[in-house]
Amino acid sequence: QARSLRHAIAAHGRIALFASTRVIAAPASDTLLVEHDESAMHLPFRNLILCTGARELLLPFPGWTLPGVTGAGGLQALVKAGTPVRGERIVIAGSGPLLLAAAATARRHGAHVARIAEQAPLSRLTRFAGALWRWPSKAAQAVALLDRHYRTGSHVVEALGDERLRAVRIHQGDHIVALACDRLACGFGLVPNTGLAALLGCQLDPVSDAIAVNALQRTGLPHVYAAGECTGIGGSELALLEGRIAGYAAAGADDRAGLARWRRRVRAGMRSRSRCGPRSRSTPRSRPWPAPTRRCAAARMCRYRPSRRIRMPGWPGCRAAAAWAPARDASAPRPGGPCSAGRSPPRARRCLPPGSAH
């Protein structure tokens, strides 16, 4: 589907695509300053849609800077880019469904996955799995990704090695396990990319740090919209629907945007406020996997504002727990969902020149 969308953009005569381009400033409320490989330029706009995606959350532990230690999503990106992993011993740790996806990608390219260490306890995962009947496709994906090396209630204590990773120590249950490995991939979900939104002055949700939008994906700034993971983590299906809503709204077709919004509610099972997360947007918006809990410097570094703490003795981390959000008016900006699992690299920003179709 992504390939077909790229082909459609390339074939459209009224869309200008600037690759390897980033926004570096906003000199005016209707202008962006962008730079690419050769030069910089001003891009004025009438309406702007932010689709800045999300970034992977990594938490520090002893040895986390050793060569061979990456994020779970980073491992996927390296393997898909051609990094050879055939025959290598890989340990994947952290929290969330991305661990299973990263393990499947590594196995397909010939790696040996020695352990998948899921931090969440089995009881919490069992409760989450029991709710997947609402989303059969997600349940089927989960079953397909199951791995015999998957262990719950486990987390990395230390990565061992001198100039490169040689082994990893994992706290599993009430004992420590040492595993020899060539690569260690850790991931604790995603956090929305809101740097550009903050630069423009968009309102952010104080709990999730996502861009606050209303029912038509409008931010608190006139003529600025946002869609996708930057408004809360929810997966590619939801991001596509939000992009459609934002596109219709930015083009002045609010009636078609309202229809797309209705389709989003039907697809996400949102006829009533779900118990899976604060915004009831989609299954992945919820976070059944607890991230590390104890307040530390990493919490301040990651700009986490925990609304609830789950005690896990011995874990040197932090978490931003899901909090139930009060009911909001449909026309008012609404916060994004909580951090969740999964990983996608930051998406390139697409900027339209004046006069182009929105």
From TrEMBL:
GO terms for molecular function: oxidoreductase activity. The keyword ATP-binding does not apply. Residues 326-338 have a biased composition (Low complexity). The keyword Flavoprotein does not apply. Residues 270-292, 326-358 are annotated as: Disordered. Pfam families: Pyr_redox_2. Residues 270-284 have a biased composition (Basic residues). Residues 15-233 form the FAD/NAD(P)-binding domain. Keywords: Oxidoreductase. PANTHER family: ANAEROBIC GLYCEROL-3-PHOSPHATE DEHYDROGENASE SUBUNIT B. This is NAD(FAD)-dependent dehydrogenase. The lineage of its organism: Bacteria, Pseudomonadati, Pseudomonadota, Betaproteobacteria, Burkholderiales.
